[in-house]
Design a protein that fits this description.
By secondary structure, the chain is of the alpha/beta class. It is 32% helix and 25% strand. It has a single domain, classed as 3-Layer(aba) Sandwich (Rossmann fold), CATH 3.40.50. Strands 5-4-3-6-7-9-8-10 form an 8-stranded mixed β-sheet. A two-stranded antiparallel sheet has the order 1-2. The radius of gyration is 17 Å and the shape is globular.
Amino acid sequence: MPNTYFQFKQFRIEQANCAMRVSTDACILGAYTAHYYTQNIQNILDIGAGTGLLSLMLAQVSRASITAIEIDEKAYLQAKSNFAHSPWADRLHIAHQSLQAYTPSCLTIQYDLIVCNPPFFVNSLKSQKKDKNLARHTDSLSFEELIVGAEKLTHQNSLLIVLLPTKEAVIFEKNLECLYLQSIHWQITKKLFVADNPSKPPHRVILTLEKLPQRSNLEITSDYLVIKDAEGAYSNNFVNLMQDYYLCL
């Protein structure tokens, strides 16, 4: 029987009651955001906390106050417990709410950084498990709702970091383009493409968006991360990114 938890170097993720468990892709999102985007950050919002993984990874390397929101009750209770048993319980907070419900009640708060591994399947075949559908499909949080909600909860120069499959990232960008006409100020400044190994195309992309006062012709920089090399061992870049978290590195 597989473990009901995932042990990191400084914290443990209990995940028996969560539809979406710890994944390599989510770990990359957490480590990448923590490494590059947490300096001088005072407050962070984690949208769709799941097990609380992203919040805990960011708490490990920053001094920020971190708020997570989670719509699924079982996942919310699991994340709340994971927070309470971590070394950073005093800086971690979680609300059992959707982004749509959370936004109107928190318009006085302006987050420096928002991180999200959102539901991303659009018009796709669904599982028979309701909690998994909630976590994986955009019915509960569309890309437009995510972009608009993040706009309302942030200030100029805030950051939004989002992990998506490469196909769905194209849809996300089209939604963003349409929303420019509604005074949405997010612009993509960087893309990190993630591939399993050198012989496979990227299957995920991490989008970094910055909230700018006006639209500009910024050049989008692109980087690539290969998880394993041609021999099947973790790549040097992956090891450098994950070595503060994974027990095996």
